[in-house]
Specification:
The structure is a single chain. The protein is mainly alpha-helical. About 75% of the residues lie in helices and about 0% in strands.
Length: about 260
């Protein structure tokens, strides 16, 4: 929700910040280099990789004051480079590590315990407090570049602070359960359809809908082909892909 507001792009999601790509590289590298890596070490490396990639995207985009077009283009480039790197790592590892890497990349809540929820809950509470406090700035940033300037909002500083908070929140979630596709794209649009575009209302609704989507995907993954299981990330991708296509079609009709 925050990424879409700051970038003013309805198709934006946390992957544009480099979070998913950085976490994927770090996680897969750890799995392939240290096959016996524990859950905490894997989560920590994924979080570090996600934040490092986000810092790279912010650093490259800072020259233009984190202008939305520049930020999106750099984020897309870093994401594609990260996916290519992940593919190389997976191809050149042995089949056992390859299966582990692909399972982690798919995103799953399998085997997760309460201690892994604690850091996510702490970061979530802090991030929500920051976003609620910045709800008016989000409304302004979602309009254009001129309105926030006229009202005294520093574009560069506000964008950097909000995107950093979003990156930290996403990195923490990725470190806990791996990569989940399309949740950050689908939930904000569904929330806007329900309660409008004011961020004081849409932020909590988007968070709730995103959580419900993950729970639904996890439930279906555990029951549809039981006793075998499908990763929650695979189900969210299956749900999100047709929705993404519909968004593209609607955008084309609206501009036409």
């Amino acid at each position: 929700m925050v990424v879409q507001a700051v970038c003013r792009n309805p198709l934006a999601e946390p992957a544009l910040l480099g979070v998913s790509g950085g976490a994927g590289i770090a996680g897969v590298a750890m799995i392939t280099i240290v096959p016996s890596v524990g859950a905490w070490a894997l989560s920590g490396s994924a979080a570090v990789g996600a934040l490092a990639a986000s810092a790279l995207v912010f650093g490259l985009a800072a020259r233009g004051g984190l202008a939305t077009d520049r930020l999106v283009l750099i984020g897309v480039g870093v994401s594609y480079a990260a996916m290519a790197t992940i593919t190389v790592l997976v191809v050149f590892t042995d089949p056992w590590n390859e299966a582990k890497a692909l399972t982690w990349l798919a995103g799953s809540t399998y085997g997760r315990t309460f201690p892994q929820v604690v850091p996510v809950a702490i970061v979530l509470l802090v991030a929500v407090a920051c976003f609620v406090r910045a709800r008016d700035e989000l409304d302004l940033l979602a309009l254009d570049d001129d309105t926030p300037r006229v009202l005294g909002v520093g574009l560069g500083g506000a964008r950097l602070a909000l995107l950093t908070a979003a990156a930290v929140l996403t990195a923490t979630a990725v470190s806990a359960i791996g990569l989940l596709s399309f949740v950050g794209l689908v939930a904000p649009h569904a929330a806007r359809a329900l309660v409008g575009s004011r961020h004081v209302r849409v932020l909590p609704v988007a968070a709730l809908l995103g959580g419900l989507l993950v729970c639904l995907a996890d439930l279906l993954g555990r029951t549809v082909i039981a006793p075998a299981q499908l990763p929650a990330g695979s189900l969210t991708a299956l749900i999100g892909t047709p929705y993404f296509a519909w968004l593209l079609w609607r955008s084309r009709v609206a501009t036409g």
